[in-house]
Specification:
Number of helices: 6
Oligomer: single chain
Radius of gyration: 21 Å
Length: about 170
């Protein structure tokens, strides 16, 4: 669906001017809250279930949880899409949800219009959940990247020293 009239095109541009930043803010906020929840769950699991005194590498564990969440959402969405779109393979369905959650949106796979109208609320909620999970993933990747940059800049070590230290701790 695209605007045809001049008024429709102007409205679309104004709507996008305000709608896109508001949407990004909402998704970022929800993604940030998901990250807080993940950190809380990880701390509970490690301190109460595993009886550890200190919780380490929380951001990396959150990154793993964020990847797992996206992975599960894509696979579950693909299962339903394959069931209701007989012409789609499972890989087509996985591709559709991945492209949707990353907001790339090539429009090469579009849900059947009749099916979409009957399940518009479900598709909308599921898509919103996936977008929030993707925002969470981007949020935690940004936190990890900025922390790594901070450690390199203010540790007094050069990049090769940091890399050799990282390799020695990984083995």
């Amino acid at each position: 669906m695209t605007p045809i009239t001049s008024e429709g095109k102007l409205f679309c541009m104004l709507y996008a001017l305000f709608g896109i930043p508001i949407t990004v803010l909402i998704l970022s906020t929800i993604g940030g809250e998901m990250l807080k929840f993940e950190k809380h769950i990880i701390k509970i699991i490690e301190t109460q279930l595993l009886k550890r005194q200190k919780v380490e590498h929380v951001n990396l564990k959150c990154l793993l949880a964020a990847f797992a969440t996206i992975f599960v959402l894509i696979l579950v969405g693909a299962s339903f899409s394959e069931k209701y779109h007989e012409e789609w393979t499972y890989l087509d369905s996985v591709y559709f949800w991945f492209i949707t959650f990353t907001t790339v949106g090539f429009r090469d796979f579009i849900p059947d219009e009749g099916l979409l109208q009957r399940n518009a609320f479900g598709y909308s909620i599921y898509t919103l959940l996936g977008l929030c999970a993707m925002s969470n993933l981007i949020n935690i990747m940004g936190k990890i990247a900025s922390r790594e940059a901070f450690e390199i800049k203010f540790s007094g070590r050069n990049d090769s020293k940091v890399e050799s230290d990282r390799q020695s701790t990984e083995t």
